[in-house]
Amino acid sequence: MYTRKGIRMIKKGNFKKFAITCLAGTVVFIMTACGNKEEKSRNLVTSADKDKKVVNLFGPMEKSNPDADNMARTAFDITIGMAEKKLGLNVEYRTYTAENHQEKTYDDVTLDRVRNDMDDLYLLNPDTIQILGEEGELLDLSVLDSAENLREVVKTANMIDGKLVAIPQEVVAYGLFVNKDMFDKYKLGLPETPEDFLECCRVFKENGIETPVGANRWWLENFVFAQAYADLYNGGNTDAEIEALNNGKSKYSDYMRPGFEFLQKLIDLGYIDTKTAYTYEAIEGEGPGFLAQKTPVVMAYWGAANTETAYGNTDFELQVIGFPSKLGQMPVVSMTGYSINANAEHLEDTINTMDIILSDEALQLYTETNKVISPSKNVEVDCIKALEPLNDKIKENIYVLGSNASMRVEQWGNTCLVVRNMLNGATVDECLAEFDKLQEKSLKK
Predict the structure, then answer these.
(1) Is the C or the N end of the chain the one with fewer CB within 10 Å?
(2) pLDDT, tens digit (0-9, with 9 covering 90-100), for 416-429
(3) What does pTM read for this prediction?
(4) Running DSSP on this structure, what letter comes out for residue 156?
(5) How many helical (H) and strand (E) elements, i.e. helices and strands, does the chain have?
(6) CB-based contact 396:322 (threshold 8 Å)
(7) Nearest Cα residue to 376 out of 171, 172, 174
């Protein structure tokens, strides 16, 4: 268990602006990027009022000050407040924060805490959802009334062995964030295909832009997903292709080869700085260069375009587009999600809390405030202009999933780790051999 400042229960707290940039559904980058010192001593977190009903929530965020002006935090806390008021309980926040890239990851900490039944409710990353779901550690959330309103893409991404093991407050879509002014300056159209993207990078490089693509150690995998699975998710044969992957008739490495070869080309041509990318945290690392108009392209999640502490207040025209693929610009959709510990101490209260924060009423408030894609098929909201290119694709059901629990080889976390190997010098064939090993292991289960 954990007792140092890295894990603590907060009723009121001031959290540094970067860490509260994206919350609830949009905290993918915080969750994957965050790590801190682990303690294995007695957990000293207790409720101050033992007579008060409590639900213990573990996530990468603290409860915000009521006067805080961050929209994402405010919307999330308001939905939690709705549950607290209706149910007469307190949702206590326990959190884990990062110091540097060498620290233990948020995923490592959540795996340990769930397996040891330390909390009731968790905000989890896709890879952690899949691991814990397969281990039977997570409750089947189909018991929730709100589960009936979910979009099919949410169910697909979070269904394991017939059980719905996680539900987000928003669907997280990733795209390329581009400085449209810089593209216009050099008379470049926004790239559709990998070849288009390489040509844009060439022009930028020849005009003195040292690193055309600002990258961090978490999100380069989206280039791989867009090229690997464009046909799989948009060709009308998705279930059959996934079944062939699961039974070994098809190889993940064959699907992923074009994406890894593309990344290798970006590296070889100097369009990505591998040394800095390997140490950069998401947005915190490459963000300053993008905002200063030294880097024309970065990658991020939908909510970063709405958040002023990320890219919501640029001095140039921002456009968010899909990643290049042979089918054109391709959004990559991934799911963080709220999960309930199957052995939660306060199980009934936790189920009731989830039902309220995932109700259409709460999701409408959350979605309108943050201008995001709701997991409920009943909730829609207009997006900001910068996101219209990405939103148009998603409305047309053009996207690939970066996390899909129905695939026996977990995608998001494994691909991220293999991409990091490439940043450290691994060849394309060495990277793809890792997926062959992962697939062989999955077939033995």
Answers:
(1) C
(2) 999 999 999 999 99
(3) 0.75
(4) H
(5) 18, 15
(6) no
(7) 171
